[in-house]
Amino acid sequence: MNRRYDVEHAALRLRMKVLLILLLIAPVGSFAQSPFDGKWVVDPVLPQKPIEFLLAQGTFHCSGCIVNVDVKADGLDHKVPAADYWDTLNVQALDSHTVEITAKKAGKTMLTEFDEISPDGETLTQLVTDTTEADPVTIETLFRRLEKPPPDAHLISGSWHAYLIHRSDNGSVITYKCTPQGFSGETPLGEKFNARFDGKFYPVEDDPGHTLVSAKMLNPNEVELTHKRKDKIVSVSRMTADPDGKTLHVVFENKDTGAATNFDFHRQP
Question: Options 3.40.50, 2.40.128, 2.40.420, 2.40.10; which CATH number does 51-170 get?
């Protein structure tokens, strides 16, 4: 009987030992995966301020665009102050309701914009094709008119408010990975970075704008990314992961304009 008791007692101790090991391992496994790890799709972000166009007397003006623009609208390439992704602009009115804009960098087409005004003049459909990468990204934005064009100006002239935007899938997805050592990201277009949490700046590979990224972990659910080009800080992104791991909340600060934008990423299965 004592032998049977010893055997059962030994088996019980073995089961308790296994349970203890599992309990010790489980927390390690659950915390090893960061809430940032995985593939994410971004919610389209609408411009917060109206855009102003004026096309009249052979000159095109845009205020509230990515950059403010004043250039001749004669269908020729014109030098503009060099930006990270273009150094010439070509603006041409194709007819009374459509305008085409082409941006180039060192002769390479980086962006094409096709603007079409509805027959009643109240809606603007803007289709932008980004060709900075081998795989083009398209962004379609719909605008409602806020202000009518001045006399003798093209129909694109006036103020417009964006109300709907759609980006192609290849320009909406990114994969993040966070470890105690650093933070990395990669898009389907081949752009990627791997920044250590050491205060240094690391390159974004395959980026024609030659962006550098510095990463800082504020806490296990919050990371700050600082972006630099040509020794100038251009933007700061602070990303916070929801406890359920399904959403990333982003506050993006554009250092050139001083504007801050809020948007979300949602986890893809």
Answer: 2.40.128
* pTM score: 0.74
Residues of the chain under the 70 pLDDT cut: 1-32, 66-67, 82
Instruction: Look at residues 165, 168, 269, 184 and name the one whose alpha carbon lies nearest to residue 223.
Output: 184
pLDDT tens, residue by residue, 34-60: 999 999 999 888 888 899 999 999 999
Other residues' Cβ atoms within 10 Å of the Cβ of residue 151? 6
With beta carbons less than 8 A apart as the criterion, state whether 146 and 163 touch. Answer: no
CATH topology of domain 34-43+172-267: Lipocalin (2.40.128)
Amino acid identity at 247: T
Q: Where in the chain is the domain with CATH 2.40.128.20?
A: 34-43+172-267
Distance in angstroms (rounded) separating the CA atoms of residues 113 and 41: 24
